[in-house]
Each structure stands twice: as structure tokens, then as C-alpha cells.
Write a structure and sequence with these properties.
600 residues, alpha/beta, Rossmann fold, Methionyl-tRNA Fmet Formyltransferase, Chain A, domain 2, 2-enoyl-CoA Hydratase, Chain A, domain 1, 3 domains, six-stranded mixed sheet, six-stranded antiparallel sheet, binds coenzyme A, binds (6S)-5,6,7,8-tetrahydrofolate
Length: 600
């Protein structure tokens, strides 16, 4: 079929559908929802058999939904309707939830149900549920819906009788209104930790919960429970609502029954443009946080039980302890949204250096649970540039260009640790999507494993024509060949797991989701560590690296890449600074990029 994706932005769900439906043999094009006449034009040009709206905020015009089947993906079960479906589901602690594919009609989310899929709710943020459970269920439901549409008879019937609701539960009007800040409100003096966590999870990544921190107004995000030891330590300190310690990006806030970690905040606007950024709490409130004691968590700790604890980095080791086989290391870096600031890159680099001392023969780099990595931290960089680009952003005369320069160096340093780890095998385990520099960080490992739902964007040009670094000029052609490397970089398109494996970007696709991948990757790594030719493999790796180094040193790759990046950051063309500004402030698109709108 010819399928037009109509979306508010080309977000992770839209990208996953784009790759999945192309894998199925459909012809896809994308139009961002800019105006009704632009959508009309796209339909005129592309002549789609169906339109799919994975992430759409505006109403599809009647002339459009009468003309061709328009499939709305609603992140709720049949009968549920409205713009805050997942927010309410998390807030109300639903134990099961679902995704519905319905046909657009005059009323929001009230059209005929074409397919639906359910899932068991997990205790996670709205955004995490959206990126994992909702996305997986949506792909299944859309495939089922398209199956139904591909029989022309039923398609005609659906278009001509768009008010029938064949599968929706009878008599259920599940309209749920937009969730407002009043619904999300927390009161530090009254609410228990569980309430605070629930409200923040329902509002994460957008719009956050409006509250007071350090006595000042801010939107709060990225909340985590304090474990028993932390709660005990916090018990005598301060009053509910007081900030009492810091850890990584976050701060610890007292509650009536303990304490919660708040990782990220968006401070209330102070400038006339009203623009603010979601930043690490310790960055947004840098002066206030400076006085707080650091309460670190041990790097090596379990995921469950009383010693489980929140921190960005976590390491674990497994395998035979009796010397009968090699040990395997597992390193996670759960950086919020996969964005890696200079501070975070440096912590990762230092941790990788530390792990060189461990007696492991296989090291798994597990990235974050929702995103493997998305490269340099564009919000953090933007924070150095309130007036955009090269304008000095603060009293130290720092600029977004300087912040970008430091961040890309730190990113390269982390990648270099991996590239030079020649005494063991390294594997990047992609539990979630990876983008730009995050993809190339993964390629710095010997092998890359992912699950079937992972989408990669192994290119930089979408961010104002960035050239990119992370030694991509070494790793990408080595893996996929020069011609394919060029095609990927210029194509700027998301690549699903099936295609990624076909072209050599991935070595293995294990399981259907993050949980399945995690279990399979651990098994596979133990097998690898126990393989009789392990020593030969490691020796071959070291020899290959030495030969490559002799042919062209890594430093030269880095220098050449950074020379181009320097021009992107400091040069005459401000495209990168403009693109970053639009991205971090989620400014609406004025047109659909031509690599997506192939019909244009
Ligand atoms: N540096 C800094 N930040 C980065 C980054 C980088 N290198 N790469 C990605 N990010 C950030 C993005 O800025 C975005 O930030 P956010 O947390 O403020 O949203 C985040 O990572 C993820 O990007 P996005 O493209 O939005 O991913 P997504 O598709 O997985 O998220 C939603 C989708 C729906 C969860 C999210 O956009 C949301 O909560 N939207 C509100 C719900 C809504 O409006 N629904 C419409 C009615 S149906
Ligand atoms: N039929 C048609 N068009 C549609 C849908 C449909 N467009 C997309 C839409 N479904 C997806 N679902 C919703 C449901 C409710 C709202 C938006 C999208 C909604 N919006 C508020 C409004 O427009 O006033 C604003 C919400 C906000 O600010 O985020 O209520 O079934 N033809």
C-alpha cells in the first residue's frame, strides 16, 4: 500500500511505524501536520491508499477523512478517548492498558475501531511506557488494521459508514479531558512519596509537574524513589519540600514519609521570550545545589531489593566465579532522554577506565533503558546560549559553540575508551533507540545487538547539517562499506532493526523488546565468554586495531572530524545553532523536510 504518515512531529512512534511498514513492503511518505491545505497537497501528490496519524494533535479535515481511510493511533484501549490518555492511565494506576487504531471521523477518537492491542502496565514514566509498550502494541495493531483495509470491500464500507464502531465496548463514552496542572499538583507538606512519584511519572517527559523547588517555581521531571538507606539518612534533615542532598543530575527532596530524587527541572521563565529549558536539577539550580552534600550510590549494585538505588551509572558482573570461564561485565548509563552532557560523558569515560581493571573478557554497554544514547546534550548546550549561537551566554563569556566543542570532545573521549579496549570484547546492547552520536558510540564497540523494536538514526545532518564526530569516519565505513556509509549519512532516515542487520549496522537482533533483549544478551555474552576461541578472538581484535592504527591513526580521524565540527560550531553558517534552538524549544515546523516528504 501507499501510506502517508501525518504527524505533529516525526517522533519515536512515527519513526518506528515508518521503518516497520517499509519492512512490510509498503511505500511510505511523511507529511508534518502544518495546515489542512498542505495535507491536501500531500495527498494530491502522493495519492496514498491510507493515511496514518501516529502522533497528531489537530483535527483531520472532513474532506480528508471522507476521501481516504485515516487511521488514528490512540494510546488507550477501545472506548477511551482524549488527548491525555496515558497521563490518566499512569495517574490512575491502571494495571492493564492498550492502544487502539481507529478511523478518523468528525469527533475526536470516536470513529470505528479497526484494531487494538493490550499490554500490562509497568511502573514507569508516561514517556517510557509510550516508547516501549505503546509503540510495540501500536505496530501490531496497525499491521492488523492495514490487513483489514487491504480488502477493498471492507475499506469502502468503512469510509462510507464512518460512524459505526464495530469493536468499541457498547455504551462506553470514555472521553477523558486534557489533564491540567491542577490535576497534576503536588503538595510537599501533605503528599506521600508514592503520590509525588505517581504525579511526576504521569507528566514525564511533558509537561512536568508545576511545583516549588528551593522556594522557586519550576516544572519537575524524572523522579525516583529514595531507597531505605537514603530515607533513613534523610529522616532527621529538614522539612518536607526541603532539598537536602545531590546525586549526579538530581537533588533529594524531603517528603512527609521520606524523600524522592528529582533528576530534571524546567525553571519558570525569567526572560521576555518566555523560553526555558529542561535541565539537570543540579544545573538549573547550580548555585543552590552547590551547597548540598553529594550522596553517591555505589556503581555496582543490584536492580531489586533494599540495595537497589537510583543513579545514572550502574555496573554488574556475572559469570563463573570459580575460574572455569571468563567473567562478563554489564554497564548501564541511564542518562535522561539519552542526552549526554560533558559531565555525563566524562563520568562514562572515567567509569570505562575503571572497568579496564576488572577481570572481565566481555563488557556489555547497555546504555539507557529507553534510549541507548542520543549523543551530545543539546538542551545543556542551549543553556549556554540564551540569545542563540555565538552570543556569550553568561558572565564567564561562555557560548553555545564553546559548550558544543567541550561536549563533542568529551563524547569522543568516551568513544575512544571503547575503541582502545583491546584486551576484551565489547558489545553495545541497544535496549532503546539510538540517535546521531549515540549510534556511533555504539559502533565503537566490537558488536552491536538490539531488539526488533529499536530504531537508529545513524546520521547528523538533521541537526543543522552537523558533520559529526565520535570517530564515525572510522567505524561506519569499516562496518557497512564506503558507499553504504555515504547513503546512510545523506539519507537522514530512521533505520529499523531488520534493515540495520541487513546492512551490517547491527550484528544480532535478539527478542522483541528491551526485557527480552536483556535476558538474551546476558546468555549470549556468557556463551561468548565461554567460547574456546575467545583468546584468539581478542588477539585478532587487537591485531586488527593495530593494523588500522598503522594505516590511519584514530587521532587523525578525530582531528579531521573535529575540524569540520569546528566550522559547524564557530563558522559563518549558523544552521546548527538555529536547528538546535528549534529542537530544544520544540518550535513547530514550517515545512516537512524533503527527505521525509518524498512525494515532494
Ligand atoms: N539532547 C537533548 N535532548 C534530547 C536529545 C539530545 N541529543 N535527543 C533527544 N532529546 C530529547 C528531546 O528534546 C525530547 O525531550 P522531552 O523529554 O522534553 O520531550 C526527548 O528527548 C524525546 O524526544 P521525542 O522526539 O519527543 O521522543 P518521543 O517520541 O519518544 O516522545 C512523547 C513522545 C509523546 C512521549 C512526548 O513527546 C510527550 O510526552 N508528548 C506529550 C503528549 C502529547 O502531546 N500527546 C498528543 C495528543 S495524542
Ligand atoms: N478525528 C479527526 N481528527 C483527529 C482525530 C479524530 N485528529 C487527531 C486526533 N483524533 C487524535 N486525538 C486527539 C484527541 C483530542 C484532542 C486532540 C487529539 C484534543 N485537543 C484539544 C483541542 O483541540 O482543543 C487540545 C489538546 C491539547 O492542547 O493538547 O482534545 O478522531 N478528524
Amino acid at each position: 500500500m501507499r501510506i502517508l504518515l501525518l504527524c505533529h512531529s516525526f517522533n519515536s512512534l512515527s519513526q518506528r511505524l515508518f521503518t516497520a511498514l517499509r519492512d512490510d513492503g509498503h511505500t511510505l511518505s511523511v507529511e508534518l501536520d502544518i495546515a489542512d491545505n498542505v495535507t491536501d497537497e500531500a495527498i494530491e501528490l502522493f495519492r496514498p491508499d491510507a493515511l496514518i496519524a501516529p502522533f497528531l494533535k489537530r483535527r483531520i479535515a472532513e474532506a480528508t477523512w471522507r476521501r481516504l481511510p485515516c487511521l488514528i493511533i490512540h494510546p488507550g484501549p477501545p472506548g477511551d478517548r482524549g488527548p491525555s490518555a496515558l497521563d490518566w492511565a499512569v495517574m490512575r494506576e491502571q494495571t492493564h492498558w492498550g492502544v487502539t487504531v481507529l478511523q478518523a471521523t468528525a469527533e475526536f477518537d470516536a470513529g470505528p475501531v479497526l484494531a487494538h492491542a493490550g499490554f500490562v502496565m509497568r511502573s514507569g514514566t508516561k514517556a517510557s511506557l509510550y516508547r516501549r509498550e505503546v509503540t510495540r502494541a501500536a505496530v501490531g495493531a496497525v499491521r492488523e488494521a492495514l490487513q483489514r483495509l487491504s480488502f477493498p470491500q471492507s475499506a469502502t464500507q468503512l469510509v462510507s459508514q464512518p460512524t459505526a464502531t464495530p469493536e468499541a465496548p457498547a455504551g462506553q463514552n470514555g472521553w477523558q479531558p486534557l489533564m491540567r496542572q491542577a490535576d497534576r499538583a503536588i503538595d510537599w507538606r501533605r503528599d506521600h512519596s508514592a503520590t509525588v512519584l505517581r504525579h511526576l511519572r504521569a507528566a514525564d517527559g511533558f509537561p512536568g509537574v508545576a511545583a516549588t523547588l528551593f522556594g522557586q517555581p519550576a516544572q519537575l521531571f524524572d523522579a525516583h524513589p529514595a531507597n531505605a538507606a537514603t530515607r533513613a539518612r534523610a529522616a532527621g534533615l529538614g522539612q518536607p519540600g526541603d532539598v537536602i542532598a545531590r546525586r549526579g543530575p538530581g537533588v533529594l527532596v524531603r517528603t512527609v514519609d521520606g524523600a524522592v530524587w528529582i533528576g530534571h527541572v524546567r525553571r519558570a521563565a525569567t526572560t521576555t521570550d518566555g523560553l526555558t529549558l529542561k535541565l539537570a536539577a543540579t544545573r538549573a539550580f547550580a548555585a543552590e545545589s552547590a551547597a548540598l552534600p553529594e550522596w553517591p550510590a555505589p556503581l555496582e549494585r543490584p536492580t531489586d531489593g533494599p540495595n537497589a538505588d537510583w543513579a545514572e551509572l550502574r555496573y554488574e558482573e556475572f559469570g563463573p566465579a570459580d575460574g572455569t570461564g571468563a567473567r562478563v561485565g554489564w554497564l548501564e548509563f541511564n542518562f535522561h532522554n539519552g542526552a549526554m552532557s560533558t559531565r555525563q560523558c566524562e563520568r562514562l569515560r572515567d567509569t570505562l577506565r575503571e572497568l579496564r581493571q576488572r577481570p572481565t573478557k566481555v563488557l556489555l554497554l547497555a546504555g539507557g533503558a529507553d534510549f541507548f544514547s542520543n549523543g551530545i546534550h543539546l538542551h545543556d548546550i542551549e543553556a549556554a546560549a540564551p540569545e542563540m549561537g555565538l552570543t556569550p551566554g553568561n558572565s564567564t563569556g561562555d557560548s553555545a559553540a564553546d559548550a558544543s566543542w567541550r561536549n563533542i570532545h568529551a563524547m569522543d573521549d568516551a568513544a575512544l575508551e571503547l575503541l582502545t579496549m583491546t584486551d576484551r570484547l565489547t558489545v553495545a546492547v541497544l535496549r532503546g533507540n539510538a540517535g546521531a552520536g549515540g549510534c556511533f558510540l555504539a559502533l565503537a564497540a566490537d558488536q552491536v545487538w538490539a531488539h526488533a523494536g529499536v530504531v537508529q538514526n545513524p546520521h547528523y545532518k538533521n541537526m543543522g547539517n552537523l558533520y559529526g564526530s565520535e570517530y564515525w569516519t572510522y567505524t561506519l565505513p569499516k562496518r557497512v562499506g564506503a558507499a553504504q556509509a555515504k547513503a546512510i549519512m545523506q539519507g537522514r532516515l530512521p533505520i529499523g532493526a531488520v534493515e540495520a542487520q541487513r546492512i551490517g549496522l547491527l550484528d544480532a537482533v535478539l527478542g522483541e523488546d528491551a526485557a527480552e533483549l536483556e535476558a538474551l544478551a546476558r546468555q549470549q555474552a556468557l556463551t561468548l565468554a565461554a567460547s574456546p576461541d575467545l583468546a584468539e578472538r581478542i588477539a585478532a581484535k587487537a591485531a586488527r586495531r593495530a593494523a588500522d592504527e598503522a594505516a590511519k591513526p584514530l587521532q587523525r580521524h578525530r582531528d579531521e572530524e573535529l575540524q569540520r565540527m569546528h566550522r559547524n560550531f564557530y563558522g559563518f553558517d549558523p544552521s546548527y545553532h538555529v536547528a538546535r534552538h528549534y529542537f530544544v524549544h520544540r518550535k513547530p515546523h514550517a515545512w516537512t523536510p524533503r527527505h521525509l516528504a518524498v512525494h515532494r
